[in-house]
Amino acid sequence: MAIRVRITLHFFIFQSIQFTVMWVLFVAIVVLNASVIAALLCTNARKSRMNFFIMQLAIADLFVGLIYVFPDIIQKITIAWLAGEFMCKTVKFLQAVVMYASTYVLVALSIDRCDAITNPMNFSGSWNRARALIVSAWLISIVFSIPLLILYEVKEVQGQMQCWIDLGTPRRWQIWMSLISIMIFVLPALTIAACYAVIVLTIWTKSKAVVMSPPINSRRTKTMRNVFVLCWSPYIVFDLLQVYDHIPPTQNNLAIATLIQSLAPLNSAANPLICCMFSPHIYTSLRRVAPYKWILNRGRSSSMTRAPVDTRRTQLLVLVSSRD
């Protein structure tokens, strides 16, 4: 009896932590990406290629919060699936589409930065190529998500109706998870890494007169690659170890797996932070947007009111020290 109570308590703790993490992720993804979109809409340089890709990435990541994270939060509240077979397939399909889109728009951005450095003379007139990269990213996401329309169904699981996927044998789960890992992690990570390698090689080999600003692009691509790997690795590695039976299916491990799976959208919260880090004009543009204008200006005014006090205090200390 004591063991059963302890297991139930541990599971409740993990569920509470997961629920909190999902809400924090949802708020962070929506607020950060909405802020980036608002800033880009207000900036005078929003028609630049870099801003175009940042905008597309922020839109994809915003959809991750609204379409992927929020329905999962609702599912945690209701526990049972109440929306029927059609919505089951539709929601799971759209969730997969936005997750893939967030990843492959990031890949498109990396390819574009690589193109900007390797072909600087032809870069300015390649807007059609930029749009083609974004369209391709969404088309790839849709194609990769189509199997979910077939595999997901509403069925009874432990006495409650759930939107469920059942592949049957462990071997099928191993193949499925391996394919998912390749499509959403391995292939994008290798592409981004290849773009970074080409950028670095080009910077080293071309003259300084041709590449004055690309080091910023290099650092941005490197940071995005590293953050992408850090955000996705726990989810991919744990799930692969689980389906290949390297992690025993204990109650605690199942709870940990559920918690780690809730971290899958973490990269969508990190992307806007990286974009702001390497694009200071986004922060500057936020000062024109309410309520950021009020918050930032209030912080600035409070610091300015403290400045005269600090100045008088410094002058007094100098006067005292001179008398000594």
From TrEMBL:
The chain crosses the membrane at residues 20-41, 91-111, 132-152, 175-205. Keywords: G-protein coupled receptor, Membrane, Receptor, Transducer, Transmembrane, Transmembrane helix. GO terms for cellular component: plasma membrane. Its main location: membrane. It is found in: Membrane. The keyword Amino-acid biosynthesis does not apply. InterPro entries: GPCR_Rhodpsn, GPCR_Rhodpsn_7TM, Neuropeptide-GPCR. The keyword Metal-binding does not apply. GO terms for molecular function: neuropeptide receptor activity. Residues 32-275 form the G-protein coupled receptors family 1 profile domain. PANTHER family: CARDIOACCELERATORY PEPTIDE RECEPTOR-RELATED (PTHR24224:SF6). This is G-protein coupled receptors family 1 profile domain-containing protein. It comes from Spodoptera exigua.
